[in-house]
Amino acid sequence: MSAIPDAWQRATSRAHGLGRRGDRLLGWLVPVGIALLAFCMRVWRLGTPDRFSFDETYYAKDAWSLLQNGYVRNYLADVDGVPVNDAIIDGRTTDLWGDGPSMEVHPEVGKWLIALGEKAFGMDPFGWRIAAVVIGSLMVLVLCRLARRLTGSTLLGCLAGLLLAFDGLHFVLSRLALLDIFLAFFLLCGVSCLVADRDWHRARMARLIDPDEPPGQGDWGPVRGLLVRPWLLTAGLCFGLALGTKWTAAYPLAAFGLLVWLWSAGARRSFGVRRAVLRSALVDGVPAFAQLVLVAVVVYVASWTAWLANAGEYEEYLSSTQYTQFVAERPCVGEGEDRTTDHETDPTRRWPTATEPDASGPAELVQSLRSLWAYHRDVYTFHTHYLNCSSHTYQSSPSGWLLINRPVGVATDLEVEPGEQGCTAAEDSTCYRQVLLIGTPILWWGGALALIAAAFLWVGTRDWRYGLAVVGAGSTWLPWLLYDDRPIFYFYAIACLPFTILAITLVLGRLIGPDPAPSRRRTAGVVAAGAFTVLVVANFAYFYPILSYEVITRDGWLDRMWFHRWI
């Protein structure tokens, strides 16, 4: 028998042992219990406020149109003299649409999920919000399981889930018909699948390598048995659904695609393969690209099936929108000046397919895909140019998101008189009701510090788990800095939150240490982790009234506005 290098032997035993945890029953029961707790917290009084909140006015109605018409049609401004939003709240669900399709500027996956809730419970606030509740609760479960896989500890996995369950931003987004909670969920699922693939890939490689003949200097290691990676295919599906919710999923897809290649190269290097990075680019990178990126693209295109089936409507009504006509951007005008000349237009510019005769058979699909491509160009123009001169009360710079620089008020009533709706304010004051999109401050500020620590630990210890948290947070947050010249909002950072919590969990796990035996270090680490969790829960409870539209006195509301920019 040939001698096996110590490094190779350690890598083999580690790979074979991946995924073999002890408390498997508790590893499912407790996370499921935490997810159910999160569900109960979020479903309570879900129909309050009983009106469209913030951008629900777009997505809830788009979802209902998808359900009723198969594509998103434009809505009437009013129905029999009643504003359309008021008519819907009053129970009107028919004869709400105009003649043509609506120019929707986000893909349709999230809206189809909202539509499932409306299908089950009706076109009302509960119906259009219940899908977000379910997805938000499942997100807690997925994070529990991912953190458990990363740390090997059910306790730390459940800690991560609890922190997510008691975050204010996640709580509110799980109770609104907005798209960002669906984006964050699919991204988290995709990354969880990639971590499972990393474990599967290493364990599979360990089984395929003969311990009596480890790879030599010129060997590539196993190839054929690693070409198809089930967890990678599943990750491609999840990332495709994320892209089908919002395009910003492209950045983490690219970042984690590179990580998959580097993880695969690291596995080959640990088993003795020389120049593993270059060799892995061919034998692992190319198949991984097909199974992750190409699958995601296919899923994304498939998510537009309803659009493609109605492409003729879009060609007729939307082939010459203001975004299609956009030619040259001009500098933003000064405050108070006319903004109507911010861009030049060419009224003759239309999609090529708009003037072509309708095709049939496979050619019809090609024609519809070309129309979809033209539609995407218009949407891209909207996102990258058309809003550059716009502003919004709640817009914020992404550089301050991790510190909660500007929360978003999605529903507000500032005129609740004393004695009404349980208001206990003095006679010369009033009570407020508000739903504020704001994270639990202690959690977010602690997470910002944890990400800094994780970055140093990733470099200093070469522990890939810290890299997962840092790359996840960076790829879902930093790209927004490219678009800070247009209105963007703090709640977009929800996609970053799970990775911030993973950084907190990993740092707390390091404080506790790997040795289960009692020690001063372990005691100090457990106390620190417990104290932080209690502070987060207490902080969430303190902010709960302004997260859930509770009646609160004006003084109580002001006490929770810790910074002037939060008002």
Describe this structure in words.
Helices cover 56% and strands 7% of the residues. With 567 residues, the chain is mainly alpha-helical. Among the domains are: 56-123, no CATH class; 305-386. A 3-stranded antiparallel beta sheet has the order 7-8-9. A two-stranded antiparallel ribbon has the order 1-4. Strands 2-3 form a two-stranded antiparallel sheet.
Describe, in short, the structure shown.
Among the domains are: 56-123, no CATH class; 305-386.
> Going across the major beta sheet, what is the strand order?
7-8-9
Oligomerization state of this entry?
A: single chain
How many helical stretches?
20
Succession of helices and strands: HHHEEEHEHHHHHHHHHHEEHEEHHHHEH
> What is the SS-derived class?
mainly alpha
- Mean of residue pLDDT? 88
Secondary structure tally: strands:
9
State the low-pLDDT regions, or none.
1-5, 14-21, 333-343
Overall geometry comes to globular
The largest sheet is: 3 strands, antiparallel
The proportion of residues in beta strands is: 5-15%
**Separation of termini?**
73 Å
Helix content: 55-70%
Give me the Rg, rounded: 26 Å
